Amino acid sequence: QVQLVESGGGLVQPGGSLRLSCAASGFTFSSFAMRWYRQAPGKERELVATITSAGGSTTSADSMKGRFTISRDNAKNTVYLQMNSLKPEDTAVYYCNARQWSREYWGQGTQVTVSS
Predict the structure, then answer these.
(1) How many CB atoms lie within 10 A of CB 27?
(2) What is each CA distance from 76 to 24, 28, 79, in whole angstroms?
């Protein structure tokens, strides 16, 4: 059974940091590209960051570059999203995604709220 389980979300003050984790099971994690998406209330889901199976990483939006970093540990079947200098506009549900060709899996999401 395929599972992607996100954790690490919560309430943080502006300027703070969080590290999200996504633990994968039920598929060959090291062969899949991994992504973090987010969806704020009333907005479409947007791509946050990507890391390839080989470990090459990118952060998608200019607003996140320099603040968000994606990484993976294939020995632990886990992908991370380090988020620094958080802003209220980063408030959203953050989703983990695994994709390999036509196979795609999603986690249930973890809420991140940035507020004072």
Answers:
(1) 17
(2) 9, 12, 9
Query: What mean pLDDT do residues 29-43 have?
Result: 95
Question: pLDDT higher for 112 or 58?
Answer: 112
Q: Which of 69, 65, 66, 113 is nearest to 89 (CA)?
A: 113
Residue 62 DSSP SS3: coil
Give phi and psi for 27, each to the nearest 5. -155, 170
Token digits for 37? 């998406």
Whether residue 103 contacts residue 2, with contact meaning beta carbons closer than 8 Å, is answered with no
Q: Measure CA of the first residue to CA of the last residue in the chain; give whole Å.
A: 40
Burial of 99 (0-12, 13-18, 19+ CB in 10 A): middle
Confidence of residue 60 (pLDDT cuts 50, 70, 90): confident
Task: List C-alpha distances in Å: 13 to 17, 83, 113.
Answer: 8, 12, 8
Judge whether residue 59 has pLDDT over 90. Answer: no
